[in-house]
Specification:
Layout (H helix, E strand, L loop, with lengths): L1 E8 L3 H9 L1 H10 L3 E11 L2 E11 L13 E10 L8 E9 L4 E12 L3 E12 L5 H27 L3
Antiparallel strand pairs: 1-7, 2-3, 3-4, 4-5, 5-6, 6-7
Length: 165
Amino acid sequence: MNVASRHTYSATPAVVFAAMTTPDVLIEKYTALGHQDVTIVEWTESAGVVRVTSKRKVPMEVPGFAKRFLNPLNTVEQTDEWQPATAKGERHGTWKVSASGVPVSVGGTLHLVAAPKGRTVVEITGDVSCSIPLLGGKLASYVGADVERTMRAEEAFNDTYLAGG
C-alpha cells in the first residue's frame, strides 16, 4: 500500500526542518500523539546529513484479523535521514519505520521545499508491505491507514508548534 502526505507550513524551510529534527520537539510531538516511552536513540549530523532515530510505544486499535500480528501497544523505531540543504534551503531524505515483532515494512522519501511567501511544503511518500501470505495485503492496508492518520496528526502538531502554541 502506498502512503502519501503533502502539507504546507507557514514557516521557512530552515524553521520547519528544525521542528522536524530537534529531539525535544520530537519527544513533545510523539507524546502529544499519545505515544509512550518516547526516546531519541540517535541524532547525528555529518557533512550536512542529519539522521534522527526515535523509539516509542505506539497504541493501536487492533482488529480481529490482525491480533496474531499486532499488539494494542507496539514498540516502534523510526529513522529519518535528511541530505544536506540545497542553496534554497530545500532538503530531501528517507524514512523507515519498524515495529518489534510486526511483519510489516514501512518506509519512503521525504521532501521539504520552499514555497511562496516564506512557507514550506513537506511531501512524504512511502510504501507499506507485508510478506505474510493471504492476510499480508489486508494487514499492510490496515497499517498504511494508521500511518496516514499519524502523518495528519503530526502535521497538526507541527502547525500548532510553528504557530508558537
